[in-house]
Amino acid sequence: MDSKTRTFVKAVVWMALGFLTMGLFGLAVTGSVSAGAGMAILNSLIGLLCYVIYERIWARIKWGRSNPSMALREDAHWVESQNSASRRRPRVWPSSAVTAVSGARTARQDGSDWR
């Protein structure tokens, strides 16, 4: 769950974006800077309140979330698997396998064709 501070900061950033767009919209519709600014301020305050309430409600809903302790264990397992994979020696393919993949015909050391 997000902290209340994180929710508030997200809301303020969202409000600033809304203020800018609503101010430009209000200016375009009314032709007045003061009327556009008034519309933007009112819209931003209402939007901020609604957004904070909306986020806090969703923060309490457990649907669609993974278990945090399980996610941490899965992350630790992934990191360990990546570390162990980097310690492994790279697999060296025999040259006959490489030519088989490329479609080239080649002969074995005993003289017989590999196909």
Report what the structure shows.
With 115 residues, the chain is an all-alpha fold. The protein has a domain at 1-60. It is built from four helices and no strands. It has helices at residues 4-30, 33-60, 68-87, 95-102. Helix 1 (4-30) runs antiparallel to helix 2 (33-60). The protein is elongated, with a radius of gyration of 31 Å. The mean pLDDT is 75.
Short key terms for the protein model shown above:
elongated, mainly alpha, 4 helices, single chain, about 120 residues
Layout of helices and strands:
Layout: H1 4-30, H2 33-60, H3 68-87, H4 95-102
Helix pairs in contact: 1-2
Quick structural gist:
With 115 residues, the protein is an all-alpha fold. The chain is 72% helix and 0% strand.
Number of strands: 0
Percent of residues in β-strands: under 5%
Principal-axes shape call: elongated
What's the order of the H and E elements? HHHH
The helix content is over 70%
Radius of gyration, in angstroms, nearest whole number: 31 Å
Low-confidence stretches: none
Helix/sheet category: mainly alpha
Oligomer: single chain
N- and C-termini, Cα separation: 61 Å
**Tally the helices: what do you get?**
4
| Average of the residue pLDDT scores | 75
Largest sheet: none
